[in-house]
Amino acid sequence: MTRMQAVDAAVLILEKEGATQTFGLPGAAINPLYAAMRRHGGMQHVLARHVEAASHMAEGYTRAAAGNIGVCLGTSGPAGTDMITGLYSASADSVPILAITGQAPIAKLDKEDFQAVDIASIAAPVTKWAVTVKEAAQVPGTFAKAFWLMRTGRPGPVLIDLPIDVQQAEIDFDIDTYEPLPVSRPAATEAQVNKVFDMLLAAEHPVIVAGGGILNANAPDKLVEVAELLGIPVIPTLMGWGIIPDDHPLHAGMVGIQTAHRYGNETLLASDFVLGIGNRWANRHTGALDVYTKGRKFVHVDIEPTQIGRVFAPDYGVVSDAGAFLDAFLAEAKRRKANGPLPDYDVWAKDCQQRKATLQRKTHFDNVPIKPQRVYEAMNAAFSRETTYVSTIGLSQIAGAQLLHVFGPRRWINAGQAGPLGWTLPAALGVATGQPDRPVVALSGDYDFQFLIEELAVGAQHNIGYVHVLVNNSYLGLIRQSQRAFDMDYYVSLAFENINSPEVEGYGVDHLKVAEGLGCKAIRVHNPDDLEAAFKKASAMAAELKVPVVVEVILERVTNISMGGAVDSVTEFEAVAESASDAPTAILPIG
Ligand SMILES: Cc1ncc(C[n+]2csc(CCOP(=O)(O)OP(=O)(O)O)c2C)c(N)n1
Ligand SMILES: [Mg+2]
Q: Would the pTM count as exceeding 0.85?
């Protein structure tokens, strides 16, 4: 046994659990942990400018690669409260991050000490576990349990709050014999798999809804193998987008009332059986439940037992890790195939592809100011298949999800459930930290961008090169669109005459000057014909200079993006595509 400070044990455990990438901002109450990290030497630290941003960076880092767990660090009091939005986002999207906060000494916890706040209680609803450690000897066990919990069942974040005297107290600890606690995952039984299979065989037009749980199980390959073996079309959810490449012949499009394809919705409506795996029937996916569920049977496979039946009662539910279910389902498919022919869904799959080749949205507008649809067309043309997109919320995110293409797992990283403005920029820094050799492209509206804009300096300081596409309508565009129902149509404008930057022509904030002032590069585009070249140039600059490169696109101010209340009644505000030249970057050209 070695005698050491509790924080030294904590750092050794972080390393052994594989969580050495931290994002944070120190303060007096967390200094002992920072000192232990310095003594140890094996930890990486990105200094955030805002602690909320550190929590989003940690989430981006976790989501960048299977097995990652990002760590965010902060002092007592406001640092922990700043992290709450990040913990909410991570818990809502089933992403493990470890938040560690400093705290006042134990004897002062109830004395209104400077920056002493009961962060464990505040964080409880948005974590799997939030705990203030009151005995130094519990530090190793607390960290071991934190990692075990983050990896067990539905993944999610944990917060460990360390009073300063607990951090510094000496304990006996032996890292050599420390072992991460074993994680067990529920697996579908043979009987359960057989039942699902029999229900599938009774259907004529089946689809698989592939959710983010498949990414958490690191099982996209298994999903594609099952789909290919049986010939079943796949509908990825917003969280699962990329599990099957957009140009795979069994990719049927996304479904929903916002981030969806016209062809995806029509295919769902034409289906008679839906096998949901690792998904949560999000309301932006289902829309009105009566429309979504009418006339089709549902099976729901999820690792968390209480998710079954939460949104609606499926015809059958299976509690299983997505990967374990796919293993068993694949084995059963092979067994049955060896015993005789399985149904041939070829005609149905071709129907789905036919819809994909016709029911498209128009992107090729020549307007100045630029129409948003054209931006995504140019992004499709300019950015490589390897690109990872990062986005949060807004018309920008919705139109991006309707019109961009994603060609692999973890290449669409989106705050799916919480949608906190400001998430995109720090999350992209975290993703780029976790994927240093792959191109990362963030997508923000002007307000999302401004929310945590100071984090650009973090990218410049730490040489994190990525491209940030900023679609500037100087509007809270999504809110303007939803306020139409309240007879309001301009209250959300962000525009003003910027006395320092007349060249922005009334759009308000001069993002170029701000980005450059924070150590980044920036390009402004007014003309749709310049978009593709600007995106390519920005990619080259990000790779060469290793700083964030912003491409600001001056958009038309007032825009409505396709959306609705049910999957059969999404309103198209613009003309739809009628020929291949209307949507030149569509996966399957019309005609
Ligand atoms: C913290 C927070 N506050 C408010 C919202 C509600 N909200 C969603 S989108 C949006 C408008 C965002 O504007 P912008 O980033 O410019 O995107 P646009 O819709 O214009 O593309 C707002 C206010 C939110 N998601 N998060
Ligand atoms: Mg906007």
A: yes
